[in-house]
Specification:
Blueprint: H1 3-32, H2 37-80, H3 95-130, E1 134-138, E2 144-147, H4 149-155, H5 165-168, H6 172-184, E3 188-192, E4 201-207, E5 213-219, H7 221-257, H8 263-294, E6 303-306, H9 307-317, H10 319-325, E7 328-331, E8 338-341, H11 343-360, E9 366-374, E10 377-384, H12 406-411, H13 418-428, E11 432-437, E12 443-450, E13 467-468
Parallel strand pairs: 7-9
Antiparallel strand pairs: 1-2, 1-5, 3-4, 4-5, 6-8, 7-13, 9-10, 10-12, 11-12
Helix pairs in contact: 1-2, 7-8, 8-13, 9-11, 11-13
Length: about 475
């Protein structure tokens, strides 16, 4: 027994003896009167003996009660430290047992509520971490409280929990939105363009009920690029159409204003009008072709085809163009393997590449077309021996309306869309396209298509010196 409990028990025992002596004395004086002193002392000592006999029982009862109270104290300390699974053992049905039962019931409800809150918190964290947007929570003091996985992945070591947001994110638009949500309690929106190089984010900052704010960053880089591409595309189409239309309008107006135009003048002007009308028609055809190949609903009609047959059919279809150009077309052969291809689409690829080479191959007077097996794909090549392409143009040459030599391309009737169409068709086949060139050494346009077979046959090359000048 603890010293303090023993002292209390001894005090109670002394008070009990005193009360018993006073009660015995009073009873003897009232009832016995002048009884003998011996009898009074005997009764008194009997009471003392009875009290002494009851002392161990009282000590046991007091120790048991103190132990139960101690268990209640330990139980409360465990609950306070976070051990919500702690419970009191029930061994009796007295008043203290009712208190223990009430405490157990309270602990059960607290534990259940805590687990529900923890489960909802985990669900919310999972939802925020699986979002495509970056999310960061900020305290009222502007300190980063929490950031989801997307934000941590993008920011890397820049974002730190427990540090001010201004030390991690220095974009003024983002900080202004967060400050507006913190100070004015308003939903603020903005656009962050210098947060991460090359990326644009739409920022939405909202105040939180308990104080602080939540900022959501939505990556709109692709949308911005698409809008920019659309604006450039519309501007390029307008420019390409305006030039021939202006020419047609000018020559027609001149003919109408001339009272007696000579036949030679009329024929010359009508020839120019026809040339520009043909240019507009080619542009329209290429625009429709580009829209078709860029349409995600456009389905290719893929079928197995030998690489050599595919190349020979494409070259045969271009016989008239090659003959009129005066350029020799050489076949470099092809391996005896099979690819999956849309024949009409691949004919357009070969046609655009060869027509493009003819425009720049007049100096070399020949174009070489061939294919070779490289690992799991077949690489087709259209090579000219013209002036070549400088290195600064190689990365952009497959863009829509991009021209290396704008004046020469327009003079030859080019629309600037042929190589863009090639790129989209090849990529829709699961292939890739690229160009290799040096100034003065011609240009080689390559496109690769995956094999249709896992174990292709041995390559069988056609005669590399065979010429197809008039197909």
């Amino acid at each position: 027994m603890r010293p303090r409990a023993f002292t209390k028990l001894l005090s109670v025992f002394i008070l009990t003896l005193a009360f018993e002596w006073l009660a015995t004395e009073l009873i003897f004086r009232l009832l016995v009167g002048n009884a003998t002193e011996g009898l009074r002392q005997a009764v008194l000592w009997a009471g003392v003996a009875g009290a002494l006999a009851a002392l161990p029982l009282a000590a046991w009862l007091a120790g048991r009660a103190a132990a139960r109270i101690k268990r209640v104290v330990v139980f409360a300390q465990r609950i306070a430290s976070g051990d919500l699974e702690a419970r009191l053992e029930m061994h009796s049905e007295d008043e203290l047992a009712e208190i223990e039962a009430a405490l157990n019931h309270t602990a059960e409800r607290v534990s259940k509520g805590f687990h529900e809150i923890e489960s909802r918190g985990n669900e919310l964290a999972t939802i925020l971490n699986t979002m495509q947007e970056a999310v960061v929570a900020i305290t009222q003091d502007g300190v980063v409280r929490w950031a989801n996985a997307v934000m941590q992945r993008m920011a890397g070591t820049q974002i730190h929990i427990g540090r001010p947001l201004v030390h991690s994110m220095r974009d003024p638009e983002l900080l202004a939105c967060v400050r507006g949500a913190l100070d004015r309690g308003e939903v603020c929106t903005g656009r962050a363009s210098i947060l991460f190089p090359g990326q644009v984010f739409e920022v939405n900052a909202v105040p939180l009920p308990g104080g602080g704010a939540l900022a959501v960053l939505h990556d709109v880089t692709s949308i911005e690029d698409a809008q920019k591409s659309r604006r450039e595309f519309v501007a390029n189409v307008s420019h390409e159409l305006r030039t021939p239309l202006t020419s047609i309008q000018g020559y027609v107006e001149t003919l109408l204003e001339e009272e007696n135009p000579t036949p030679e003048m009329t024929r010359e002007f009508l020839g120019i009008v026809l040339k520009n009308a043909a240019r507009m028609n080619r542009l329209t055809v290429d625009l429709l072709a580009l829209a078709r190949v860029e349409n995600p609903d456009n389905k290719l009609k893929l079928q197995p085809c030998k690489a050599g047959v595919l190349m020979r059919d494409a070259l045969a279809a271009l016989g008239g163009i090659v003959k009129d150009s005066g350029v020799k077309l050489q076949s470099g052969g092809a391996p005896n393997v099979t690819v999956l291809a849309d024949l009409d689409a691949l004919n357009q690829v070969f046609g655009n590449l060869i027509e493009n080479s003819i425009k720049y191959a007049r100096e070399g007077k020949r174009i070489r077309v061939g294919a070779k097996l490289e690992g799991p794909e077949v690489v087709f090549t259209v090579q000219d021996y013209g002036p070549g392409i400088s290195s600064e143009h190689l990365d952009r040459i497959f863009e829509r309306f991009y021209r290396v030599d704008k004046a020469r391309s327009r003079e030859s009737g080019g629309t600037g869309l042929g190589l863009a169409i090639v790129k989209h068709i090849v990529q829709s086949h699961g292939g890739r396209v690229w160009v290799e060139s040096e100034l003065g050494n011609g240009a080689a346009f390559h496109f690769a298509l995956p094999l249709a077979e896992q174990t292709p046959a041995e390559p069988e090359q056609d005669d590399p010196d065979q010429e197809r000048q008039e197909l």
